[in-house]
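Regression test case RT-17, inverse folding.

Input:
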């Protein structure tokens, strides 16, 4: 029977939620809604509600949101479709009227991190939530770890090909990150108990007609490792696991405190970590800082003195009081990024860190040997995570073997048969399991097959595999995971480090940019083969992300008009994408292609952003700058010779075209003009001066050749220094020096000012053509080339 919202048999909204009565478009809950209220408002567990369509499940979501808001928390509503996110934004203006903020986060909107962080209600699709949780350790997306309640609208989406696995792994990851209360709503389904089992919803909060978690400032969890037979090797496995967990925070100017078993372990771990961080190119340490070197001389312990210069310290009771005080001071001041300590530091010394890792759950006792740390010790150590006034959240981890994981987790946390689509099979390079496995490796959650199996245990797939035939489980599932890991290694998304797998830069970038793995692989191949505009556009157009694009018969003539015979070997959809992108770079898109042009362009810009990052990481900043300039042309339709103008804040397509028509080609031209001249060129009087000022804030390259000679004797060699500086603003730059077209020196730096060593050698040639090239990989500015000719004399 269908109940209306004003059913007399239900409880009045005013009685259940007096502070939120005006947020509901009806005065009384219907019987189905009323039956769920005790669980929603009186209990804290996860909730699963399966009910017929149009029976009022939206009100259940809104009750969950109201309870969350009333407690001062943040709610996340996962809508199955992007269109529904916009609908909810409109519907929930009712919450805005009560003083709460509703913010929609989708791929088609520019993210405002401040609004997202301050929002009381977030609305996202599963795909956007997947992308956001993959980047939760970035400032832009850290808000996603502050979710108190997650409402899944239409949880039976789990059974949808492609999208179902996204929802499944996103919820599993979100629970790992911040363990929100999950309220899962669905149309009628036969196996509601399986969804409840996956979400740990008890019988009392599972309904056939939706785990509450209120996160605390400390986010604590267990990280497992694969235990071997050699205790010494295990120690280093745990160390690498600890570094994996700490690395992301150190890279973001956070600090990590790692507890180990003994005094000797603090020293050995610090020495190994110095090498490992250097190998991973993690920016730590104060080398080159004269004052810091002078202050480090005060350390009495020689090893500690050398270690702190590299940003890594150790602390134990055997150090002198002066050295303990010094290393604590360096850590508080941020000059030591990673500190290894015995458990004694957890007691009595207020030395918090953003990230705390317990590498060793045993400690060495001189009389009793290796003993388990007490639960009180563990909690005390983990309590050091989070720096008041600096970190919004502390991150704490216990590293242990799989057999102990449950015990530590307990300490820390005290209509249709819905199927999982996570491991449906198919080609390893394109199936969902491989894609999501790579994402978990990139996040540091999976380091080997055992970790992968642990991760799978958090999925809906695992529940179904244990309850139903037709699923891989046990050794069969383990074999499938091993095959996927082998594929990821073979295609360079991960690499083997002994018994463990580590994400490669390509694997991390594929996850960060939400790329299909074949697309990421093709981008890496493109970076290796060399960048040119035609190849870039073709590679983007043939990306699997565009597989669903179809070319209509009415569009064929327009496609041919743009491409001619080029691209005849491509599928019709890919050829349409290619034509749309090429037409945009020229500034004129045929009318027949305009209906899909915006969607194609937005997806292409996302892919080009990923390609730029991959090329920047694998090939260098000059090639990345080429991709960035092409992306700007596709975004704005501005010609290649004037696209640099779009780097100016406040200058988009229209203003760039206006300035280009008046002869302005680069931000430096604009910065050198007067407001009156810019107004005469066609800019509004009210913005001309601001545009000029913004242009002046962009980098402007000046090259000082210093004492560079005009000629050099044959057979002689001189070492010169060339100074490159920005006379405008600072930006990350890629610099290269070539001699007669041969690259001799490269450098990536944040320009400012930097010096390049250049060797001038009088060889066999009679003339040396030196060129300094400066490119900005993150800005659409044209690369700057300055040259100097040196004669070779006998």
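Golden output:
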């Amino acid at each position: 029977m269908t109940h209306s919202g004003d059913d007399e048999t239900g409880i009045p909204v005013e009685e259940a939620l007096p502070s939120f009565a005006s947020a509901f478009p009806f005065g009384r809950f219907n019987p189905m809604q009323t039956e769920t209220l005790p669980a929603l408002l009186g209990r804290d567990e996860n909730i699963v509600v399966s009910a017929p369509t149009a029976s009022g499940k939206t009100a259940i979501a809104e009750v969950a949101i109201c309870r969350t808001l009333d407690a001062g928390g943040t709610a996340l509503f996962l809508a199955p479709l992007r269109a529904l996110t916009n609908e909810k934004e409109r519907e929930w203006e009712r919450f805005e009227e009560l003083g709460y903020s509703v913010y929609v986060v989708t791929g088609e909107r520019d993210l405002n991190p401040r609004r997202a962080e301050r929002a009381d209600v977030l609305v996202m699709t599963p795909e956007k939530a997947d992308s956001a949780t993959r980047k939760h350790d970035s400032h832009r997306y850290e808000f996603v770890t502050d979710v108190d309640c997650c409402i899944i609208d239409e949880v039976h989406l789990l059974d949808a090909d492609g999208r179902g696995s996204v929802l499944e792994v996103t919820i599993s990851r979100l629970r790992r990150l911040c363990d929100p209360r999950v309220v899962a709503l669905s149309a009628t389904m036969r196996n509601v108990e399986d969804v409840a089992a996956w979400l740990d919803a008890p019988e009392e909060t599972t309904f056939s007609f939706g785990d509450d978690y209120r996160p605390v400032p400390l986010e604590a969890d267990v990280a497992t490792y694969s235990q071997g037979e050699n205790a010494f090797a295990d120690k280093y496995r745990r160390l690498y696991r600890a570094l994996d967990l700490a690395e992301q925070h150190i890279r973001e100017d956070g600090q990590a405190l790692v507890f180990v078993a003994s005094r000797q372990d603090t020293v050995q771990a610090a020495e190994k970590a110095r090498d490992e961080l250097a190998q991973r190119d993690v920016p730590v340490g104060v080398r080159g800082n004269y004052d810091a070197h002078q202050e480090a001389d005060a350390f009495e312990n020689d090893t500690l003195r050398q270690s702190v210069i590299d940003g890594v310290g150790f602390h134990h009771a055997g150090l002198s009081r002066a050295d303990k005080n010094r290393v604590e001071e360096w850590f508080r001041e941020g000059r030591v990024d990673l500190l290894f300590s015995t458990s004694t530091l957890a007691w009595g010394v207020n030395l918090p860190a953003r990230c705390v890792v317990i590498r060793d759950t045993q400690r060495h006792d001189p009389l009793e040997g290796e003993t388990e740390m007490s639960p009180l010790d563990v909690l005390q150590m983990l309590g050091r995570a989070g720096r008041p006034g600096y970190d919004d959240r502390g991150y704490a981890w216990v590293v242990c073997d799989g057999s102990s994981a449950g015990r530590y987790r307990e300490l820390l946390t005290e209509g249709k048969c819905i199927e999982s689509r996570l491991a449906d099979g198919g080609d390893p390079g394109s199936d969902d399991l491989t894609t999501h496995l790579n994402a978990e490796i990139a996040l540091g959650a999976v380091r080997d097959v055992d970790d992968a199996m642990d991760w799978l245990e958090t999925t809906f797939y695992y529940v179904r595999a244990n309850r139903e035939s037709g699923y891989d489980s046990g050794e069969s599932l383990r074999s499938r995971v091993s095959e996927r890991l082998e594929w990821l290694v073979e295609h360079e998304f991960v690499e083997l480090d002994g018994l463990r797998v580590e994400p490669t830069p390509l694997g991390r970038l594929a996850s960060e940019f939400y790329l299909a793995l074949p697309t990421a692989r093709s981008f890496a191949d493109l970076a290796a083969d060399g960048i040119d505009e035609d190849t870039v556009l073709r590679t983007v157009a043939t990306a699997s992300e565009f597989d669903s694009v179809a070319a209509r018969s009415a569009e064929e003539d327009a496609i041919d008009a743009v491409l001619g015979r080029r691209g005849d070997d491509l599928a019709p959809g890919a050829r349409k994408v290619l034509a749309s992108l090429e037409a945009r770079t020229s500034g004129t898109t045929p009318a027949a292609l305009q209906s899909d042009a915006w969607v194609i362009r937005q997806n292409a810009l996302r892919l080009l952003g990923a390609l730029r990052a991959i090329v920047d990481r694998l090939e260098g900043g000059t090639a990345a700058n080429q991709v960035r300039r092409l992306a700007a042309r596709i975004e704005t339709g501005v010609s290649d010779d004037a696209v640099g103008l779009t780097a100016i804040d406040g200058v988009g397509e229209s203003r760039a075209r206006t300035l280009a028509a008046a002869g302005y080609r680069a931000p430096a031209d604009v910065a050198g003009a007067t407001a009156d001249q810019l107004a005469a060129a066609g800019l509004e009087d009210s913005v001309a001066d601001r545009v000029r000022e913004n242009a002046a804030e962009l980098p402007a390259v000046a090259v000082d050749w210093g004492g560079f000679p005009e000629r050099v004797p044959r057979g002689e060699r001189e070492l010169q220094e060339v100074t490159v500086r920005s006379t405008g603003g600072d930006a990350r730059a890629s610099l290269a020096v070539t001699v007669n077209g041969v690259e001799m020196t490269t450098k990536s730096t944040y320009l400012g000012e930097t010096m390049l060593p250049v060797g001038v050698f009088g060889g066999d040639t009679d003339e040396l053509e030196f060129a300094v090239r400066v490119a900005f990989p993150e800005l659409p500015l044209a690369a700057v080339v300055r040259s100097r000719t040196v004669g070779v004399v006998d």
